[in-house]
Design the sequence.
C-alpha cells in the first residue's frame, strides 16, 4: 500500500473516456432521488443534499484516489445528523445552521486525523459491529420510509411504537400511493439484476411520466415539489454555548461512521480490482469534501455503499466518473427542475428502500454464528440502534467493539506446549495428541499479548496450574505474543518470577523480544541473559544443561 505523509496531495487529472461519461450519467440518476430522500431523513431541504453531492464529488475527485467512490450524502450520515439535531436546542432555522456547523466540524476532524495519520482508528469499530449497526440502521430507515410510500402520517417515540402506529394507520393508507411505491420498488429490484442499466434514473423518469399521465397529485399522492437550489454563504447560527458543545460532542460518531462506511466501500472495491489506496489520504479527501459541502451549506458526505457499487456496475474506469456524476446532477436539477417537482414521493421512498436492501442480508451475521465468533456482538449493535436510536446505537456499537476486544485480550487462552516427536517443534498438546510433554517441565504460552488488563490473570492461572501438578521442577514461559510490556504487566511478570522462586521452580523465558528483554534488564530482573532463550527448544536445553550441571 502506498504510504503518504501528512495531508493528501492533489492528484493528476484522470484521463477522460466514454465509459466514465456513461457511468457518471447513470450515477447522477441515482444521486438525485437519493439526495432528496436523504435530505428528508435529516429533516433538511432537498437542495442541501443536492449541493452536497455536487461539491463532494468534485472535491473528492481532486484529492481522493478511489475510482468508484461517489462522495455524497449517505443514509447513515443523514440518520445520525437527524438524531444529532434532534437533541440540540433551537428552532428550525437554528438547527439548519447547526447542521452546516456539524458538516464543517466533521470535515475539520477528517483533515486533522489525516495530518496525524490516524487512519487506523477504523480498526476500533469491528466489522461485526459495523454489520450489526448497518442492519439496525437499514431497518430503522426503511421503516421510516414506509409512511411516505403508503401516504400516511405516522408518529412514534421509538421504533416499536412507530411500527405499531404504522400498522394502526392501515385504514388511512392511500391505495394509489401504495401501488406507485410498490411498482417502483419491484422495478428497482428487478433492474438491479441488469448491470449497466441506470435503474434509478429509469424509475425516476417513469414516476414523473406517471405523475402527468394519471394525475397522481389529484389522487392524493404527494409530490416532491419545487426544489430551489439557492446556495448562500454559510453563517454561524445564533445558538448558545450548550448547543455548540453538544453538537461538537456528537460530531465524533458522525465522523467515525462516515469513514468506516466510506473506507469499507472503497477498500472492498479496490481489493476487487487490485487498486491501491492509502487510508490517511482518503481521510484527508473526505475532510476536504465535507468542508466544501459546508461551504455550500450541504449535508455530511461520504462514499456510500449503494452509489459506489452503482458506479462499479455502470463501468467506471477513473475518478472522472464522480466529476461527470456531479455535472450530470447539476444539469438535471437545472434543466429538469419543473419535471423533478412532479416526482411522486412514494418513488423516492422506493429508491431509498431498494438502496438499503443489501444491508438486510442476514448471511454475514449468520456466518458469524457458524464461526462462533462475535455473533452476539453484531446482534447487540443491531439491537442498540433499534432500541436506543441511531446516535446512541452508534455509541453503543463503538463501545461493543472495544468491549469485545478487551474481553478477548483480558481472557486469553493459555496453551500447554509439548514436543512433536524428536523435532524442535513445540505445539499445543490439547490440539495435537501426538505431542509429548517434557518430564518435570511445564511449557506455557499465553495466546494474547501481556498488558495491564490480563497479566495478573494469566500469571495467576499459570501459577495455580503449575502448583497443582506434582513433579514440576521447571517452567518455560513463551512470550512470543508480547512485543512489549507496560509497567503493570512488567510488575506482574516480576512478581510471578518471585513466586516461582519461592515455590522452588526454575523459570526460563522463551521467544523473548528484544524490547522486552531490555525492559526486564532495566527493571533489575536477575539473570536475564541466561534465562531468556530465542526458542522453546533453546529454553529446554538451558534447563537441561543446568540440571545436569547441578547433578555433577
Sequence:
Amino acid at each position: 500500500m502506498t504510504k503518504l505523509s501528512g495531508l493528501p496531495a492533489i492528484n493528476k487529472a484522470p484521463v477522460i473516456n466514454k465509459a466514465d461519461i456513461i457511468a457518471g450519467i447513470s450515477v447522477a440518476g441515482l444521486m438525485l432521488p437519493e439526495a432528496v430522500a436523504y435530505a428528508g431523513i435529516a429533516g433538511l431541504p432537498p437542495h442541501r443534499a443536492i449541493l452536497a453531492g455536487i461539491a463532494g464529488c468534485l472535491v473528492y475527485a481532486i484529492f481522493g484516489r478511489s475510482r468508484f467512490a461517489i462522495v455524497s450524502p449517505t443514509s447513515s450520515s443523514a440518520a445520525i445528523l437527524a438524531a444529532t439535531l434532534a437533541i440540540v436546542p433551537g428552532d428550525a432555522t437554528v438547527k439548519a445552521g447547526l447542521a452546516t456547523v456539524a458538516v464543517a466540524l466533521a470535515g475539520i476532524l477528517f483533515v486533522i486525523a489525516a495530518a496525524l495519520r490516524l487512519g487506523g482508528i477504523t480498526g476500533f469499530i469491528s466489522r461485526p459491529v459495523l454489520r450489526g449497526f448497518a442492519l439496525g440502521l437499514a431497518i430503522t430507515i426503511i421503516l421510516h420510509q414506509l409512511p411516505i410510500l403508503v401516504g400516511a402520517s405516522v408518529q412514534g417515540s421509538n421504533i416499536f411504537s412507530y411500527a405499531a402506529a404504522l400498522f394502526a394507520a392501515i385504514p388511512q393508507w392511500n391505495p394509489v400511493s401504495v401501488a406507485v411505491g410498490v411498482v417502483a420498488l419491484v422495478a428497482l429490484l428487478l433492474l438491479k439484476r441488469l448491470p449497466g442499466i441506470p435503474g434509478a434514473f429509469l424509475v425516476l423518469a417513469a414516476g414523473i411520466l406517471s405523475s402527468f399521465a394519471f394525475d397522481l397529485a389529484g389522487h392524493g399522492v404527494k409530490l416532491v415539489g419545487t426544489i430551489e437550489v439557492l446556495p448562500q454563504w454559510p453563517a454561524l447560527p445564533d445558538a448558545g454555548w450548550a448547543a455548540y458543545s453538544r453538537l461538537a460532542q456528537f460530531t465524533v460518531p458522525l465522523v467515525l461512521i462516515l469513514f468506516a462506511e466510506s473506507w469499507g466501500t472503497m477498500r472492498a472495491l479496490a481489493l476487487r480490482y487490485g487498486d491501491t489506496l492509502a487510508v490517511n489520504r482518503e481521510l484527508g479527501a473526505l475532510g476536504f469534501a465535507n468542508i466544501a459541502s459546508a461551504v455550500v451549506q450541504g449535508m455530511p458526505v461520504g462514499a456510500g455503499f449503494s452509489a459506489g457499487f452503482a458506479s462499479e456496475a455502470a463501468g467506471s474506469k477513473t475518478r472522472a466518473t464522480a466529476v461527470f456524476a456531479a455535472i450530470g446532477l447539476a444539469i438535471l436539477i437545472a434543466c429538469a427542475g419543473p419535471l423533478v417537482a412532479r416526482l411522486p414521493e412514494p418513488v423516492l421512498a422506493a429508491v431509498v428502500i431498494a438502496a438499503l436492501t443489501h444491508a438486510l442480508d442476514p448471511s454475514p451475521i449468520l456466518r458469524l454464528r457458524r464461526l462462533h465468533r462475535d455473533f452476539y456482538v453484531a446482534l447487540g449493535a443491531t439491537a442498540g440502534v433499534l432500541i436506543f436510536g441511531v446516535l446512541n446505537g452508534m455509541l453503543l456499537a463503538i463501545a461493543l467493539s472495544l468491549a469485545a476486544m478487551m474481553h478477548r485480550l483480558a481472557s486469553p487462552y493459555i496453551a500447554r506446549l509439548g514436543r512433536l516427536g524428536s523435532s524442535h517443534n513445540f505445539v499445543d498438546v490439547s490440539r495435537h495428541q501426538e505431542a509429548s510433554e517434557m518430564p518435570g517441565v511445564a511449557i506455557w504460552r499465553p495466546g494474547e499479548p501481556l498488558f495491564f488488563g490480563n497479566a495478573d490473570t494469566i500469571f495467576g492461572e499459570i501459577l495455580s496450574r503449575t502448583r497443582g501438578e506434582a513433579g514440576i521442577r521447571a517452567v518455560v514461559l513463551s512470550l512470543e505474543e508480547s512485543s512489549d510490556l507496560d509497567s503493570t504487566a512488567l510488575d506482574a511478570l516480576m512478581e510471578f518470577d518471585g513466586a516461582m522462586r519461592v515455590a522452588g521452580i526454575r523459570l526460563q523465558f522463551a521467544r523473548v523480544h528484544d524490547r522486552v528483554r531490555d525492559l526486564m534488564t532495566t527493571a533489575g530482573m536477575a539473570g536475564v541473559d541466561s534465562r531468556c532463550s530465542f526458542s522453546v527448544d533453546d529454553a529446554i536445553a538451558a534447563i537441561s544443561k543446568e540440571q545436569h550441571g547441578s547433578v555433577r
Remarks:
- The beta strands are 71-72, 302-303, 414-420, 426-428, 435-436, 441-446, 474-478, 506-510, 532-533.
- The first helix runs from residue 18 to 42.
